[in-house]
Design brief:
alpha/beta, Rossmann fold, DNA polymerase, domain 1, 2 domains, five-stranded parallel sheet, globular, binds 6-O-phosphono-alpha-D-glucopyranose, binds magnesium ion
């Protein structure tokens, strides 16, 4: 069992952890699903943490359309979703940082913890710049270099490597079930943020980002 004192670094998901962009992903995918005539209850939760192309495949499969599009047509559909999404994030600013997360990052930095980003989103650098948190995330896994998407542990293993740490020395923070699975498979301590039922595999669960503090994590690890 990992002790709090073993922890040297924190690996962050972005969408739904640092800022509430998951609702924009849900909205943009919803627009595309409507256009394709695909009904997908729970679409917003299903695409959390899932790469752009994998999310598209999920929607096509749900609508029984998996074999209907060429690779080029799928690229065009994914690009269309991204264009919708980019519109939605255009006016983001520091006000869109989720409660407590700016203080949490400042506290980690002040206390000398390593900080890295494990977001599947190719829009992550743009979003971090818009909300004014780029300086915390000089160490970020480039999703374009990944072979596998979440729930594969690859992104979380790489995020620990960027910090020169062993996975066991890292805590991973996620709002998606696929992300929690990846953190656990990487051998890191998982912190789930959101619905405890959805994130039942997380080692530690917080309902709200405002509860994410070093003191609360230490308490949870010592319980
Ligand atoms: C995050 C989000 C997913 C999104 C993925 C890719 O993991 O939770 O919903 O599909 O990033 O984002 P992108 O901005 O590259 O399309
Ligand atoms: Mg997320």
């Amino acid at each position: 069992m990992v002790k709090f004192t073993d922890i040297k670094g924190f690996v962050f998901d972005l969408d739904g952890v640092i800022t509430d962009t998951s609702r924009y992903h849900a909205q943009a995918w919803g627009q595309l699903a409507d256009k394709l005539g695909v009904e997908y209850p729970g679409l917003g939760d299903a695409v959390k943490g899932i790469s752009r192309m994998d999310a598209l495949e999920m929607i096509l499969k749900k609508g029984g359309l998996a074999g209907n599009y060429s690779a080029a047509e799928k690229e065009a559909l994914a690009a269309e979703k991204n264009a919708n999404y980019v519109q939605l994030i255009q006016n983001m600013s520091a006000k869109d940082i989720l409660p407590g997360m700016a203080d949490f990052l400042a506290d980690l930095k002040a206390k000398g913890y390593g900080i890295s980003l494990a977001s599947a989103s190719k829009n992550a650098p743009t979003i971090l710049a818009k909300i004014g948190l780029s300086d915390y995330f000089t160490k970020a896994v480039d999703p374009a270099t990944l072979q596998y998407g979440k729930p594969d542990p690859e992104i979380f293993v790489k995020a620990a490597q960027l910090l020169d740490l062993m996975p066991a020395q890292c805590i991973g923070l996620e709002d998606a079930a696929a992300g929690i699975a990846g953190i656990n498979a990487a051998g890191e301590t998982s912190v789930g943020i959101g619905d405890a039922e959805l994130l039942h595999d997380a080692a530690i669960n917080f309902t709200e980002t405002s509860q994410v503090t070093l003191a609360n994590i230490e308490k949870a690890m010592n319980d």
